[in-house]
Amino acid sequence: MFNAVLTLRLARHGIDIVLIGFFAWVALLPTFKFLWAPIVDRLNVPGFSAFWGKRRGWIMLAQLGIFSSMVAMAFTASDTNLPLVALFAILLAFWTTTLEVAADGWRIELAPSQEEQGPIVAANLWGYRSAMVAAGSGAALVAARADWMWAYLAIAVLAFLPFPILAAMRRDPDASAKRSGSLVKGIIASVVILLLSSIATAIVGWLALEVFSAAGITSESNVTPYVLVICMLPFVGLAFALPRIRKMGPDAPWRRSPALGPYVDIFWRYGFATLLVLGFVSLYRVGDVLALTLSHPMWNARGYSLDQIGIADGAVALPASMVGVAIGGWISARWRLGWALALGAVVAALGNWVYIWLWDSQAHGWILYTCVAADQFGNGLAGAVFVVYLSMLVNPRFPSAQYAFLSGFAFLLARLLAGASGTLQQQIGYDGFFMLSGALSIMAVVFLPLLAKVVPRGTSAGPERPV
């Protein structure tokens, strides 16, 4: 709702393709979820966590944040005030990401081995992708019959439904509080947290716009190189610190630090091979992110109706994605991960390249549905394999924080490029754009022979295992 559906909404309102590309940078926020993941790992949500436990408490807070942000996006659906639209899109991205951090930590705690992760990742992604497809398809179909305000309100109501389900679940084994009191206290605390986070985001956004304006940066400026440098600085710093990190003992302050310890542990365990791992994960999903950014504007430009787009996003995308996820989870549990990752990269690239045929063909419904099915199948298969791979890199002592770091870095390059996708499209066209996105995805295969030789240091949490 803050990415694919929003870009379609902006395209239908005639917003320039370059500005639409800039909105893809909202999706950069999940890249930096490692900054607040330790908070999710260590702190409880007042009220909610007292009865439902830490993980479910954070999920319930995030659900309220998602609901309120989406309602706000509904009431700015005319897109006449783009900075305000961006504010609520950022808040939606923040609370969506917070939910993912809590859910990923819960998932990894429940299933620490590769054999267990295969089926639980498939089940998790079935639900995740079903929700994405329902939102994309449902929003388009509602907007075709009413308008975008009602589309966002309808999906907001659906997004709220997990909250009462969680509230009805049984008490956490270690909890002693009462359900009703915890629910009331949690809702009051959530209102305060949501209000403060909205004010803080608005202030930071206003300051950022003032700084950009003073620096002469406009919608015509190419800021991607500068953003890339800023985002890479902390990781470059860690790379220079690798020799020192590798010599640290178990009682070293950096390794025991609640804020830095989980991330230093990754570099301590993998050494200089960390750079190889991060290079691989940053390329693996590039094609899918780029395709998601401009696929809906391309369908709109090609002349497909909202009804056809809604059917493609729903009745076609969901079963294709489900099959891809199921096969990805199955092969992850039974194949060596290197072979599974190679297959995922190839299938995902083919799913991108099929859009070249769509752009060069007449606007027939069956062509759109065929291309979407191929794209979503490849996306689902590659996504399931990739989640298992990232989960196996994680030290079980720090599941939320390390998974947040790795999955965030995995999409840093992709989301930076996505912000410049409108500019790229103007230069090479839609066919060239999707040719490039597929080629970038398949390049990740080059890393696999080297990754097969990477074995991390053992930890107190478990034995050494091949990456």
TrEMBL record:
Keyword check for Magnesium: no
Chief place of localization: membrane
Membrane topology: Multi-pass membrane protein
Record's GO cellular component terms: membrane
Compartment(s) of residence: Membrane
Spans traversing the lipid bilayer: 17-36, 57-78, 84-106, 126-144, 150-170, 182-206, 226-245, 266-286, 306-330, 337-359, 365-391, 403-421, 433-452
UniProt KW keywords: Membrane, Transmembrane, Transmembrane helix, Transport
Segments forming a coiled coil: none
SUPFAM superfamilies: MFS general substrate transporter
Record carries keyword rRNA processing: no
Protein name listed in UniProt: Permease
